[in-house]
Structure prediction request, 284 residues.
Amino acid sequence: MTHATEIRGERLTAALFLAASGVPVLPLRAGKKTFGNCRNCAGNACGGRPNMKTPGPCTCPKPCHGWAAATTDPNVITSQAWAWAWREAAAVAYHPGGAGITVVDLDNAEAIAWAHATLPATRTVATTRGEHWLYRGVMPSRNAVRPDVDIKSSMQYARWLGPGTGTMAVLPDVVRDLVVREPAPVRPAAVTVPAPAGGGTCPHRTPTFLERGIAMAEQRITAAAGAVHATVFGAFLAVLATHGRCGCLTEAHTARLFTAAQAKGESPRHCADAWANALTRLGM
Prediction:
């Protein structure tokens, strides 16, 4: 048995093991690319969409539809129709969405550091350049949701690099929110509230008191170890309750609060919503 034959056998064994566990698999060629359309389906003649995100109606057993070729059927995996692909395959791939999971693909140390600071702990798999973080749950896939971070779940494939370590957590909202396209960040608008009767001067607050209040709110947000949404809303509410009715708050103050919130992973939209909700709560 040649070394190449032995490697092919290991890949096929891994594919069958995954399929038996309910994980749809497919062979992957060099460069982490799927195999192209077979002759009968060239140009997606079978009805598949050009981007191969939707399989056609054909029953061709060959791996000719990108991620949609992934299967758990051992008869297809070991068929003659797939034999040519396993001979040329460089790796085993799987369809995360079909297995009920989402992969957060982190490409370097900076991305991994961001994940440790932002995402709930879960099962991790080492990759050539970084890590895959696996969560239970399915969501839309999207590349470059932030620098060097991709989401692989529905209509996508990922390399099989081993079972990984740790317990797989439930897919959190913080990951789901990564694929929501946010509007271009804008500077927070100045808060305009009615000045109190009697000349509009602040009757009980000094600039130092206001500065201390903003700094305490920033610190409260920055120190949040969890429940960031609730912490941001609570900090905004406290600032507005104390300083929001006398006209002392400026655009610079709100920008500081929004910046602190966004540094903890909040989006501009979430910041604006939390600020608006706090105003509503206070009847402002």
Residues 183-200 have pLDDT under 50 and may be disordered.
